Structures are given as C-alpha cells and as structure tokens.
C-alpha cells in the first residue's frame, strides 16, 4: 500500500457479500490518472470468501490491509439480521476509526458498522427492506428509512446498491470538489448528484413519459441557469401546471423545484471556482445568483464555507 498522496481505500468483503456492493467502490476509486485514490480489497482473512448470488471472492489480504486505510467500505451482505460479523472484523473497524479512517457502509453493511457501536446515537440508514431489522437489532441507532445516505462526520451509511454510487460521489466531492465528482459520474454514466436526503423508494403512479419530461426540464434548466427561472417557467417547459410540477418534482428529487435550482446554481459556481479565474461577481452573474453577496450567502448556507475558501481548497 502506497503512503504517497493517494487516498487509500479498502473494501472489506464479508461472508455473503453482495457483488454489486463490492464492485461499486472498487470501480469508482480504482487508480487511474484522473483519480488520486488507490484501492485494496480484503477479507477477515486472506483466501476464498463465499459471496452472495452464487459468487465467491478470492482476497489476497486480511484485516491488516485496513491498518493504513483512509477510508474503509463495508459492502452489504446476506442475512445481516441473523448473523454477527466476526469479532476480529468489529475490532479492526473500531481501530481504523480510532486512527481517523472514514467508515462507509453500503446497504446491509450498516449492520456490521452498527456492531462496532460507532453508530450509537447517530443517524444511519440501510436498504429499506432492512431498516426495521436494523432498528430492532441496534436500538441506539437512529435509523432513517427515508434517505439515500447519511454522513455522520466520517461514519457513513447508504441504502441499496445504487445509492452506493451516490455515497461514493459524495466522498469524491468532499475530497476533491465537484469537478472531479462530475468527471467520475460521467465515467459511470450516473447522475452527478442526488441528495442524501432523497427518498429511497416512493410508490407512485406518475406515468413514465411525465418522468421523462421532467428529466428534460431539469436538463433544460441546467443550460439556462443564468436566466430567471421561476416555478411557472419550469412548469411551462414541462407542460404541466405549476402545482402538479411542484408536487411531482419533490417526489422525484427530494427537493422543491426552486431548492433544486438553487443547488444547481451553487454547484455550477463550485465548478467555475475550481476551473476558472473568474471573480465572484462574474460567477454570480453567470450562474444566475445576481450578485457576489447573494452567492456568498447561499454558498455559506449550503456548503458552510465561502467561495474564496472553496477556491483555495479545490482549485487546480
């Protein structure tokens, strides 16, 4: 394992591990010229690990791989409500966290993370099918069944497999800014940003063509952020009433239309701060926020920092 500048990611494969959950962080953070990360895959011990869905894994390393990890992923595994992770695994996760590593669970990997006690008193989530079981098995954990992922100061949990991609992109954004995160999303052909607070599963009878139309409206809005965008403007583009558009937009995204527009503007401002030398006033005008003061206000409210501090941290 290199001790250079690359962020060291370890994927912990437990018995019954789900292949997609294992593959997501292994692929997202795989070392390549554009990615300042390197990935190792380990198990409770070196050798063959029986996975879920008829697959097995041959891992070259045991828990010692976690000793220098910056981030440890715990993919989901089968039968989490009736099995306990090995004591050695629990101890290794606790030791990694004590050394300052981030711990990130995908889907039912939250059960192994909860077994460490590190989620006690914290919000956490898992796949919606297992949220009740997680709450019953670990009553000190504040289980939230209505979110895609939760970041509790470096201890992270996510819902089903697809939300594992959202969690990985969230970490890339945190580490290296929105530019690299968007680059990774394009490589994965994934949505560049879904809020962690978005609902996991919304039963609804919205016709598919309407959903497609809303996607087109969001794409249109992203190309017109510098212009005045109101609820009525967006609804006209989607060819539905403002009331219908607003209600169904929230169901689809977890945001009201204007909350989504504001965050899209802040995201574009982030990318311009990273990739250009434009001044704050110029960026505010280009993203549709009008003035530097307005940009600073929303930037700080959403990201907890100023545009200048953000540029100093993430500019190339």
Q: Mean pLDDT score, rounded?
A: 89
Please report the number of helical segments: 13
Characterize the overall form: globular
Beta strand %: 5-15%
Widest β-sheet, arrangement of strands: 2-1-5-6-10-9
Largest sheet: 6 strands, mixed
Give the N-to-C terminal Cα separation.
Answer: 26 Å
The structure class reads alpha/beta
The unreliable regions are: 199-210
Q: What is the helical fraction, as a range of percent?
A: 40-55%
- The overall strand count is 10
Alpha carbon gyration radius: 21 Å
Listing every helix as H and every strand as E from the N terminus to the C terminus, the arrangement reads: EHEEEEHEHEHEEEHHHHHHHHH
Quick description:
The protein is an alpha/beta fold. It has 13 helices and 10 strands. The chain has helices spanning 19-28, 87-98, 109-114, 131-137, 161-176, 178-188, 208-222, 231-238, 242-253, 257-275, 280-287, 292-303, 307-314, and strands at residues 7-13, 37-43, 47-50, 56-59, 71-74, 102-105, 123-124, 142-143, 149-152, 155-158.
Protein architecture, described:
This protein has 316 residues and is of the alpha/beta class. 46% of the residues lie in helices and 13% in strands. Strands 2-1-5-6-10-9 form a six-stranded mixed beta sheet, with helices on both faces. The protein has a two-stranded antiparallel sheet with strand order 3-4. A two-stranded parallel ribbon has the order 7-8. The chain starts with 6 loop residues before the first strand and ends with a helix.
């Amino acid at each position: 394992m290199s001790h250079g500048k690359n962020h060291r990611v370890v994927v912990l494969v437990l018995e019954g591990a789900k292949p997609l959950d294992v593959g997501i962080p292994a692929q997202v953070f795989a070392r390549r010229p554009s990615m300042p990360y390197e990935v190792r895959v380990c198990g409770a011990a070196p050798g063959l690990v029986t996975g879920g869905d008829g697959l097995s894994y041959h891992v070259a390393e045991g828990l010692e791989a976690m000793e220098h990890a910056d981030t440890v992923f715990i993919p989901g595994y089968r039968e989490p409500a009736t099995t306990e992770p090995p004591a050695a695994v629990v101890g290794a996760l606790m030791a990694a966290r004590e050394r300052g590593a981030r711990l990130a669970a995908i889907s039912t990997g939250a059960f192994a993370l909860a077994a460490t006690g590190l989620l006690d008193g914290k919000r956490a989530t898992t796949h919606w099918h297992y949220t009740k079981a997680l709450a019953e098995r670990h009553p000190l954990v504040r289980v939230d069944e209505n979110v895609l992922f939760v970041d509790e100061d470096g201890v992270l949990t996510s819902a089903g497999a697809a939300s594992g991609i959202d969690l990985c992109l969230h970490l890339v954004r945190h580490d290296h800014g929105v530019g690299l995160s968007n680059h990774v999303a394009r490589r994965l052909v994934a949505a560049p940003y879904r809020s962690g607070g978005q609902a996991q599963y919304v039963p609804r009878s919205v016709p598919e063509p309407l959903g497609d139309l809303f996607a087109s409206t969001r794409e249109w809005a992203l190309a017109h952020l510098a212009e005045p965008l109101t609820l009525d403007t967006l609804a006209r583009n989607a060819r539905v009433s403002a009331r219908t558009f607003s209600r169904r937009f929230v169901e689809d995204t977890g945001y009201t239309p204007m909350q989504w527009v504001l965050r899209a503007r802040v995201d574009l401002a982030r990318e311009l701060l990273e990739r250009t030398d434009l001044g704050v006033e110029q960026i505010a005008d280009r993203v549709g926020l009008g003035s530097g003061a307005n940009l600073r206000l929303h930037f700080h409210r959403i990201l907890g920092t100023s545009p200048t501090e953000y540029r100093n941290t993430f500019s190339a």
